[in-house]
Structures are given as structure tokens and as C-alpha cells.
Amino acid sequence: MRQSAEGHRLRQETLRLLAQVEKQGLDIAEAYRSGDGVSAEVKDFRRFIEKVDHFNVFIDLVEERLPGFEDDKRAALTRHLVDIRWRIVIVEVDTTQIFLVRIGETHKPWPLGSREFLQRRLGRLGEISEYYDRFGEQYRLTPLSEVMLRAVEELLKQQIERAPALTNFSDQSARYAVSTGDFVKPENMVLRLDPGSRRRTAERLPLPRRDPPPFRIKEMDGRFYAERDGIVAVSEICRNANVTLDQLAVRMGVSRPSLVLMLNGNDPMSRPFMEQLQSFLDKNGPPQH
Question: Which structural domain range is residue 249 located in?
């Protein structure tokens, strides 16, 4: 009976995740339909890719939970997820092409580290081709235009040649000089005026250490749930401890997406996991008064 109740709860959580996936897919499709929302700014291109990556993380999480459903339901959900994923793939490839054309037309230099970003986009085309080879015929997916794929591939290769890598900037100053009108946001500075010499000296302000909001956990049926937005508290403690969420996930023995779901209260935590997490927070958080 308890196993049946647990299975029902997990299926309900899966369906809630599926609703999030559907909403994210619709948001992406609506925001970038027919080139709408596409600018000539690299930061907007990166923001688009982050949205697509976030969508794919959530759709992976739903697929991982499908074995908890009966065969017929699992088959229907699998088909539904493949269809949603492929629709966003079409948007991803088409929108990437438009971004690359518009960014290329500006002739502005790519930011430092853009080569790695663009190379990942090139590798992504290979992943998309492999996905279609696996599922295209089985689920009758609409094939992507070979002409468009080759065009995107060529655009990426052209921009990779222009984009600086993270470790290759010693000889790039002339080639990628910042033109007039391009501004770099300065670090926090405070100016002091020396009354004797009238010279200004600048001191760099240290980043303030902020006390994170409290991280609260509630127990339900022997499982532990973080209160919503618990990730804010944990992320702040991680920042103060110079630990990334990826590193924390490795310490906890889970994937980053699973950790994020638990910290947001979407997935339950076991008692050992909760105690290990609380130990990390107590050790690295602000002193208790």
C-alpha cells in the first residue's frame, strides 16, 4: 500500500514537471517565433541558448521518471516528449541561424571565451543529427532542412575563426580592439581625493559578504522538502564558501538538476541527504546567534 502511494506521488510529481516543460517550450516558441526577439547582441544569443539548455534539463528529468508509469501511459508520454523536444530543436536551429547572421553583420568583436561557446554550438548540431537518426523514423519527426543545417554549420565555423578563446588573448588586442562606443562596466571603485597633491587614488572595494536568507525544511510522510526558493539561501552560502552548485552536487552524490529540484522544494530529500546538506550549510553559513 505504501509502495502504491509512493508511486502515485512520484507520478504526480512527474506530471507537474511535464507541465513545466510544456510551459517552457511554449515560452521559447512564442518568444522566438519567425525571428521575433532575435537581436544582434551576443548576450541575447547566450540568453536564448541558456533557455533552451534549461528546457532540455527539465525534459531529461521527466524522461528519467517515465519507468514509474504503466506501459501504455509511458509510451504515450514518451511520444509526447519526443514531439515537444523536436519542436524546440527546430526553433533552436532556426533561431541560431538568425542570431549568427545578425551578429555577423555588425562586425563587432566577440567577447573573450566565445570560441568555446560557438564550438559547443557546432557540437550541438551533431547531437541533433544523432537524435533524429534514433527517433526520426520511429516518431515520424519532420526532418530539418539539410540546406539550413549546412548554412548554420558554415556560419558557426566562420564566427569561430573570429572569436577569441579563453586562453588565447595575448595577441588579440589589435585584432579585437574595442571600438568607440563599446563600454565595459567597471568594477566597484571608490575615489579618494588627496588634499595635499590633489591627485585621485582608487581603491577596489571588496565584495561584501551577505548573510543568506534562512534555509528551512519541512517533513512530510518521512520525506524532507525544502521550502520554495531554498536554492537562494544555498546558492548564497555556496558563494560565500567559494563552492559552485555543481561542486556541491558532486559532494552530495547527485546531479545538478536533481539538486536544484530538491532545493526548490520540487523533489523530496532523504534523511541522510538532508543531514549532509544541513551539515554543509551549518559549517559554511553565518554564525548562529
Answer: 217-284
Report the distance separating Cα 117 and Cα 68, nearest Å: 36
Confidence of residue 34 (pLDDT cuts 50, 70, 90): low
Strand partners, 59: none
What one-character DSSP code corresponds to residue 164? P
CA distance 114 to 116: 5
Residues 240, 209: contact at Cβ < 8 Å?
A: yes
3-state secondary structure (DSSP) of residue 70: coil
- Pick the last residue of a domain from 120, 136, 162: 162
Contact status, residue 55 vs residue 28, Cβ threshold 8 Å: yes
Same domain, 275 and 146: no
Q: What is the mean pLDDT of the chain?
A: 80
Q: Is pLDDT at 125 greater than 80 in this prediction?
A: yes
Q: 53: helix, coil or strand?
A: helix
**pTM for the whole structure:** 0.59
Domain end call among 162, 191, 226:
162
Both 19 and 104 in one domain: the answer is yes
The answer on 136 and 9 residing in a single domain is yes
My answer on whether 107 and 229 are in the same domain is no
Give the mean pLDDT of 66-75. Answer: 91
Q: Do residues 109 and 41 touch, judged by C-beta distance below 8 A?
A: no
215-263 pLDDT per residue, tens:
888 887 777 888 766 777 888 888 788 888 778 888 888 877 778 778 8
Position 83 confidence tier, pLDDT thresholds 50, 70, 90: very high
Tell whether 179 is covered by a domain.
Answer: no
Percent of the chain at pLDDT > 90 equals: 40
Pair 23, 111 in one domain:
yes
Same-domain pairing of 35 and 107 = yes
Torsion sign across C-alpha atoms 185, 187, 192, 198: negative
Q: How far is CA 159 from CA 119, 121, 165, in A?
A: 10, 11, 12
Query: What is the tally of structural domains in the chain?
Result: 2
